[in-house]
Amino acid sequence: MSLLNITKKKTLGKTNIALNLISYFMKGWRFSKYIPQNNGESPFEQLFKIFKELLYHTSGDISEALSWLTELDKTYDITTPEYGIADFIEDLKARGFIRDGEGKTGNVPTSKMEIALRKQALDDIFDQLKKSSRGQHNTNHSGSGDEMTSEIRPYEFGDNLDKISITDSLRNAHINHGIDQLHLTENDLQVHETFYQAQTSTVLMIDISHSMILYGEDRITPAKKVAMALSELIITRYPKDTLDIIVFGNDAWKVEIKDLPYLQVGPYHTNTVAGLDLAMEILRKRKNPNKQIMMITDGKPTCIKKGKKYYKNSFGLDKTILNRTLALAVKCRKMNIPITTFMIARDPYLVNFVDQFTKANNGKAFYSSLDGLGEFIFMDYKKNKRKKR
């Protein structure tokens, strides 16, 4: 049940009363009461969807999320006399989503809750992705790869014997030599076609500067959802890949995947250079030939470090900061490290910076408003075309 559906339910209730009164005085067709569909979801499942959404906004604060849920219940009657908020809390504990905090007041999320948050983020943001097999990134080149396909071809010298299709080979032998006796030759052999699989090392950069909540716009919550969705996508669908996550404000540092729901904005400027430096340092240690950086930001770098001091300028695009940032984008391009930027803003001058940055790196950019994370504008500078995903 979405928050929109909760509002609709309240409105439909008033509409139903009017329809029932009209039907009472009408002859002919009688209108029955409208019963909203819950798609077979239990009361717990309906509340759980709302609760997870609230956790994104409260940075994993269980008490605050439950307080908001209680206020929603008072306003929109989202619970029933048979199943209330207290029942929901007991079910959260019984199902292992929350537990009593050790040395803390109230409840805290469990690892099961963290996984549930990442899965919902993936469903919400990348719902257009079709279910794919667990594996790696396919290339367009066939050969002695490690992933078999449904395609069959004749055996060639050098093919691995474990790729031979026994059923197809025996069928060829019977067709070519008869079924009276088994006679199998090299020309009868058929093998499964295979494809090379590319393992990828990814560094995910998340902007936690103050601008991510500036002017009353909550940009960090959408950023966290994108980060959790990307993390879940890589973990579940590309398990042989490596994923490192870093956050950047005045400086940059590594965080764990389990920490993503709890990220908060600090009183920081945006030191994109520090984030890129750390990302490149991490990727230098990775042996995979395929490396990439994914950066979630609101667009504008405002800080670099000169020696032990910070050089900061929040007004417009400072040339000194801009040049250092673009220089690293070019350096990443020369190291064959593409940068994909997820931009949680559409301000023209911010978009202009991301355009310059993406062109310098020959990478990609996804532009998203706060209301529509599911619809990205995909900028592919290698193919010089624009398309909507």
What proportion of the residues is helical, as a percent range? Answer: 25-40%
Mean pLDDT: 79
- Cα distance, first to last residue? 26 Å
Radius of gyration: 27 Å
Number of helices: 10
Number of strands: 14
Question: What kind of sheet is the major sheet?
Answer: 8 strands, mixed
Shape: flat
**Range of strand content:** 15-25%
Strand order of the largest sheet: 7-6-5-8-11-12-13-14
Unreliably modeled segments: 1-15, 17-27, 128-143, 374-389
How would you spell out the order of helices and strands? Answer: HHHHEEHEHEEHEEHEEEHEHEEE
Decide which structural class fits the backbone.
alpha/beta
What's the layout of helices and strands?
Layout: H1 3-25, H2 43-57, H3 62-76, H4 85-94, E1 98-100, E2 107-109, H5 111-125, E3 137-154, H6 166-177, E4 190-198, E5 200-207, H7 220-237, E6 242-248, E7 252-255, H8 272-284, E8 290-297, E9 303-306, E10 309-312, H9 319-334, E11 339-343, H10 348-361, E12 364-367, E13 377-380, E14 385-388
Parallel strand pairs: 5-6, 5-8, 8-11, 11-12
Antiparallel strand pairs: 1-2, 3-4, 6-7, 9-10, 12-13, 13-14
Helix pairs in contact: 2-3, 5-7, 8-9, 9-10
